[in-house]
């Protein structure tokens, strides 16, 4: 079933809470970008405010509190960090319904360091955990689709980035990303594809028609003069 997932990219925990407050009753799933300033150029919460020592992050880790309105949302965390595998247990304490890992960068940085290590990581995950949480694999337009295809059978969905410039909202959606969606849908029957970066009201239907199952919407909603109306229009497309 096709769906719309609002995206939150913020440096401050208070702003994450504000946006989740706005989304209450309007969306079931919320996508939150976790950026460490290493894998991406700019950090977001918690790395923009102390990393794992951030007071709000610590409260969640110590099980004193949960994510805001955790009873109401399915959280999808996009781990744009260099230590996603190494600190998997820490990120799990955020209470994700979905966790997204990224292919390694050319310089060797990346969530899984190398393909073999990531494969072993996926194969070693507890089956109960896999039954209750989805794992996604994110890739950029310029990434090698043969590697994406190789790993696709070990994850629950593919997360197609609409631009090579990840970690920012408001980027232009790449035509190469559209080609990638069509290619993967044709060659990997049954695969679920979510799309992130550059999704707006002008291109959303085209992306869905290309085969996307979920659209992750950030600036296309938040920077609209009428965010509620924009979200409702996106939702009407699915």
Automatic annotation (TrEMBL):
Entry's Gene Ontology BP terms: carbohydrate metabolic process
A molecular function (GO) term: racemase and epimerase activity, acting on carbohydrates and derivatives
Keyword Chloroplast: no
Keywords: Isomerase, Metal-binding
Gene3D superfamilies from the UniProt entry: Aldolase class I
Pfam assignment, any one: Ribul_P_3_epim
Protein name: Ribulose-phosphate 3-epimerase
Species annotation: Candidatus Nomurabacteria bacterium RIFCSPLOWO2_12_FULL_41_10
